[in-house]
Amino acid sequence: MKHQYRIAAGMLWIAGLAHAQLNSKIELPKDSPVGLLKADFSNSSASPRGGTNVIDVSAVLSLRNSSGKRIRGITLAVYAQDIAPGGKGSFSVSSLDVAPGEVFPVRIENRLLRPLGSVGGGIGPTVEIKLDGVLFDDLSFYGPDTLPSKNSLTVWELEARRDRKYFKGLLESAGQEGLQKEMIAGLARQGDRQRLGGQPGVQMVRGRVTNAEPEQQMQFAFIQMPDSPLEPLTGSAKVSSREARAPRFSVHNRSGRAIDHFEIAWIIKHQGQNSQPMREFFAASMPADMKLGPNQTGEIREDSVLRFQEPLAIQGITGFVSSVAFADGEYWVPSLNSLTGSKLRELLPASPEELHLQQIYSKRGLNALVQELKK
Question: What are phi and psi of 155, to 5 degrees?
Answer without folding.
Answer: -65, -45
